[in-house]
């Protein structure tokens, strides 16, 4: 019973991370529980400071409630060591310059790319590679989702960035993400369409087979 309750709460948080704000009926469509049971979970999350209810007014019709994550909950998606990483990079920049820090980020990217390549090696076609890439991303905490637009095009979306604080301070970290995907998928064209560090809802990449 406890496990089921916890999984519902986690799924609510995941949904609100992706959709920003949802009504009770919209949330309910993702569960096989009663309206009363869901509202009980929502109340618990409100008490914990994870989400809040906001009244939305309409020109026609009655106001309605939408649930969204609090600022506290948004911060909880960020790894605790992020601020330490940023602080260390700032110190290195002061001592050795920004070019040195960007070189470190590039080196880290290359190491990560090699690790990805090994895991993608058994997969030959783009759909299989994309599915495996999605699995790797989820394991790294990116909270990614994959949409197949048509047989040749995919959209990869990241609703959480484990290096968010670093990316906000060092834009090279965002740029290298696009380069990683391009290197891993040589038979596809990769384009970054949105970025969390730029204030957008998610990092979004359009991947199109050449």
From TrEMBL:
Q: Gene3D superfamilies attached here?
A: Winged helix-like DNA-binding domain superfamily/Winged helix DNA-binding domain
List, for all copies, the residue spans of the domain called HTH arsR-type.
Answer: 11-49
Q: Which Pfam families match?
A: HTH_5
Gene Ontology MF: a single term: DNA-binding transcription factor activity
Alphabetical list of InterPro entries matching this protein: Carb_Metab_HTH_regulators, HTH_ArsR_DNA-bd_dom, WH-like_DNA-bd_sf, WH_DNA-bd_sf
Q: What is this protein called?
A: ArsR family transcriptional regulator
């Amino acid at each position: 019973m406890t496990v089921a309750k916890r999984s519902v709460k986690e799924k609510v948080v995941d949904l609100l991370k992706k959709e920003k704000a949802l009504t009770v009926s919209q949330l309910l469509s993702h569960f096989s529980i009663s309206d009363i049971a869901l509202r009980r979970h929502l109340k618990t999350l409100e008490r914990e400071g994870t989400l809040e209810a906001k009244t939305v007014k309409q020109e026609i019709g009655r106001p309605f409630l939408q649930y969204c994550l609090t600022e506290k909950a948004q911060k909880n998606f960020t790894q605790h060591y992020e601020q330490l990483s940023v602080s260390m990079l700032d110190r290195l920049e002061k001592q050795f310059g920004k070019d040195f820090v960007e070189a470190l980020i590039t080196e880290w990217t290359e190491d990560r790319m090699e690790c990805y390549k090994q895991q993608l090696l058994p997969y030959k076609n783009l759909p299989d590679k994309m599915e495996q890439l999605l699995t790797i991303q989820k394991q790294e905490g990116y909270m990614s989702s994959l949409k197949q637009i048509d047989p040749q095009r995919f959209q990869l979306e990241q609703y959480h960035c484990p290096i968010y604080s670093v990316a906000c301070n060092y834009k090279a970290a965002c740029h290298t993400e696009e380069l990683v995907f391009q290197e891993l998928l040589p038979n596809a064209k990769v384009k970054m369409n949105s970025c969390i560090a730029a204030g957008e809802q998610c990092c979004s990449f359009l991947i199109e087979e050449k």
